[in-house]
Amino acid sequence: MFGGFGYALMEIVYRGYTHISMFIAGGICFCVLIVISHSGMPFVWKCLAGGLAICTVEFAAGCIVNLWLKLNVWDYTRYGYHILGQVCLRYFVIWTLLSGVVMWGYPLLSKTLRYNL
Questions:
Q1: Rounded mean pLDDT of the chain?
Q2: CB of 61 within 8 A of CB of 25?
Q3: pLDDT tens digits, one per residue of 2-16
């Protein structure tokens, strides 16, 4: 729930709207990032794995929501180095950086919530 709401809010702030599919994708991505954060990899590799995981979820969601159901929630064809307009290099870099923020901040957030609830 936290990941879904967090991503939906981030998207509303960034572009003014979101779609229910992004709530679901954001929740899945957050769960995957938490699993990756518990791995024994160095932090930089965790960030890269997080960026790749988010792009994988985004690509799968895009193939279903945009290409199959034709809902046109997003289109990255205007950006270079895209795959079917569903993922692109620009957002891979952004997701990689955001993965680091989430994986760094999650332990702090979970401790705060645990002690304050």
A1: 92
A2: yes
A3: 889 989 998 999 899
pLDDT of residue 117: 45
Enumerate residues 6+ apart whose C-beta is below 8 A from 1.
Answer: 27
CA neighbor of 88 nearest in space, from 74, 69, 100, 72:
74
Please, how many CA atoms are within 13 Å of residue 28, restricted to the half-sphere of its CB? 15
Q: Give the start-end residues of each E strand in 56-110.
A: 82-83, 87-88
Torsion over CA: 94, 96, 97, 101 (sign): positive
Tokens of 27: 């929740």
Which of 105, 96, 91, 30 minimizes the C-alpha distance to 62?
Answer: 91
Give the pLDDT confidence of 52-77 residue by residue, as tens digits.
999 999 999 999 999 999 999 999 99
51 near 96, Cβ under 8 Å? yes
